[in-house]
Amino acid sequence: MNLGAPEIVLILIALVLLFGAKKLPDLARGVGRSLRIFKAETSKMNDDDDDRPTVVQAQQQAQPAPQQIPPAAPAPALSAEEQARQLEEQAARLRAAAQADKRP
């Protein structure tokens, strides 16, 4: 499927007519956020598959281990994507509050 310049221009014109020029940045931001969330979830699914114990691991876990005092676990750090998502949500709330203040 080869898209040339005329096809891309027609698609952009259709998007502007459907959503309006002011809503396109918000639409693109929402699509980007959705893709980031989708990628994070699919990578978590792949990690979950890798974490399944094999037969040898299950046998090793069944053996009693010597008592160990677990180290204090620090709070899990947020990934860069999660931090960015939280900042975008905060910015959206602040914009909404600013727009509400502007209205009479």
UniProtKB/TrEMBL annotation:
GO cellular component, one term: TAT protein transport complex
GO biological process: protein transport by the Tat complex
Basic and acidic residues: compositionally biased ranges: 82-92
Low complexity composition-biased segments: 57-66, 93-104
Family matches, as InterPro entries: TatA/B/E, TatA/E
Membrane-protein topology: Single-pass membrane protein
UniProt region (Disordered), positions on chain: 42-104
One Pfam family, short name: TatA_B_E
Top-level taxon in the UniProt lineage: Bacteria
Gene Ontology terms, MF aspect: protein transmembrane transporter activity
Keyword field: Cell membrane, Membrane, Protein transport, Translocation, Transmembrane, Transmembrane helix, Transport
Subcellular location: Cell membrane
Assembly with partners or alone: The Tat system comprises two distinct complexes: a TatABC complex, containing multiple copies of TatA, TatB and TatC subunits, and a separate TatA complex, containing only TatA subunits. Substrates initially bind to the TatABC complex, which probably triggers association of the separate TatA complex to form the active translocon.
Function noted in UniProt: Part of the twin-arginine translocation (Tat) system that transports large folded proteins containing a characteristic twin-arginine motif in their signal peptide across membranes. TatA could form the protein-conducting channel of the Tat system.
Family per similarity comment: Belongs to the TatA/E family.
Designated name of the protein: Sec-independent protein translocase protein TatA
Lineage: Bacteria, Bacillati, Actinomycetota, Actinomycetes, Streptosporangiales
